[in-house]
Amino acid sequence: MNKDMTRKPGEVFFALFLSLVSLGAVWKAYGIAGFEALSSPGAFPMTVSAIMVISSLIIAVKTLRAKPAQDTSFFKDILPPAAAMMTVFILLYAIALKPLGFLPTSQLFLFVSVLVLSRRGVWFSAWVSVLCLATVYVIFRLVFSVLMPEGVVPEREIIAFFANLFGGEK
Question: CB–CB of 63/7 below 8 Å?
């Protein structure tokens, strides 16, 4: 091991988290078929996840032995405020998607994200978010017929209205 090796802020946490996730993978792989036989359905997943555990523990030990870097800080270099804020926005989006539906939740998410990240004002953020949402909606809902959570907007009725208006049902 290189004696001059340093670790950045957050590396110890990530290495230990990686080890825990690898242990979880072993547990899940064991749940497939246990230790029945080398040819059982769980043999390959257990082997791969065991290699993950060994590798992640080696990485964790090396990371713990490394000296902390002096010229970096976690909130400046690893998780700047904009990234932390977008993580919170994405979490709130995921929580609100089912009860509110795709259209209002996505519109609010896009509007607030553009407003905060661009710092160009309310009107700019409104136009950009409406244009982006309209584009995504037309491509995925109308062209590719992807079903999205409906929520509070009666989307099916609106689409049926326009389909009937333009001769969709005869």
Answer: yes
Q: Which helix (H) or strand (E) holds 67?
A: strand 67-68
Q: How far apart are CA 40 and CA 74, in angstroms?
A: 44
pLDDT tens digits for range 21-63: 999 999 998 888 777 777 778 888 899 999 999 999 999 999 9
Q: Is the pTM of this model over 0.85?
A: no
State how far the alpha carbon of 77 is from the alpha carbons of 84, 89, 94, 104, in Å.
12, 20, 26, 34
With vertex at residue 33, the alpha carbon angle to CA 29 and CA 37, rounded to the nearest 5 degrees, is 110
Please report, in angstroms and rounded to a whole number, the separation of the first and last CA atoms in the chain. 76
